[in-house]
Amino acid sequence: MSTSRTGGKGKKKRYKLRYDRIIAVGVVFIIIIVMLVSCIGSCSGKNNESSSEISSESVQTQTENTSLPVSETTSETSATQPATENSGYTVQKLEYSEINKGDLVLVNKTYEYKFTEDLDIVDIYSHKNEYYTVKDMEVSLESNVINQLNAMMEAFYKEKKNTDIRVIDAYRSKEEQDKQVSGNKTDVTGGYSDYNTARSFALGSFPADGTSYYLLDEGDYSWIYDNMQNYGFILRYPVSKDLITGIPSSTYRFRYVGVPHAIYMAQNNLTLEEYIENIKSYNKDTPLKVTDGTKSYNIYYVSANENSVTEVPVPSDKTYTISGNNTDGFIVTVTLN
After folding, report:
1. Do the domain assignments include residue 5?
2. Tens digits of per-residue pLDDT, 293-307?
3. Model pLDDT, residue 165
4. How far apart are the C-alpha atoms of 258 and 103, rounded to whole Å?
């Protein structure tokens, strides 16, 4: 049997390195990485956008929820304010004609007295005390005015021991006033004289020596001028006020207006004309405050409705009075204590 051999030593097999394949694999790997990164970024963006929308809605909802209670609170506060302001008050309904009635009616050459009041006008002689005299048994005043005059004259006597003062003129009806005009005693016709109100009167002095004269602010009588406001009286035509009142000044013409009003007028040197105008600056919420030393008062003005009834606010738990001013409204006087 014969055997065949290849001559010489055996050679090792060599492998050739393929760089092109390595590069191709690397490129594929890079592409895969890029795709993964892109996918992750896209998903992350969507999540962020969704998160942003939720946050925005959350903020908006929170803002709306926060604003609702504020709005409701404001509404409740506004609704309760009128109740607070009006608490303790009620309404008095008055016809326009009521402005012509009351202790504060202004009567002069411009504003006529209407004689519509139901007054208790009585003669002074039968109702006075012993501390002063009266011209005759016919001279009359409203009964409350006489009561206040009695109180003042009693206090005057206790202080000065003087009974010389006499009431020489007082209430006049429209007809009586017109007779004064006919007799050339005045040019003020009936309805335009303060005497027509039954709250105005004139005083004179009649000493025991037989002399007589209109009352003057001198000697014992100065007490009257210093204290009359404490009894509700004013000097109707004070000195240097002629142009305001339309009547020459006089030291002997007095008028009853009520204690707090007389006190304020005396303190501020006001005529009745000036006071009626001044009081219009005050209302229920910002009243004029006056004290007489023992009592305190709130005073305010309410404009009258000429074409309908006027709703005048008055306290439900305090004593009060309402007076017309005979021009355009009402004056409310509240006693606080």
Report:
1. no
2. 999 999 999 999 999
3. 98
4. 7
If one counts the domains in the chain, the total is 1
Structure-block tokens of residue 11: 């050679």
Q: What confidence score (pLDDT) does residue 110 get?
A: 97
Is residue 220 domain-resident?
Answer: yes
Q: Which residues of the chain have pLDDT under 50?
A: 1-17, 37, 39-85
CATH number for the domain spanning 314: value is 3.30.1380.10
3-state secondary structure at position 63: helix
Helix boundaries (H) for the chain? 19-86, 143-160, 174-182, 222-227, 242-245, 259-268, 272-278
**H helix intervals, 186-305:** 222-227, 242-245, 259-268, 272-278
Q: How much is the pLDDT for 25?
A: 55
Q: Residue 209: give the domain boundaries.
A: 90-335
* CA 320 to chain CA centroid, nearest Å: 16
For residue 129, which amino acid is it? Answer: N
CA 168 to chain centre: 41
Q: Residues 302, 310: contact at Cβ < 8 Å? A: yes
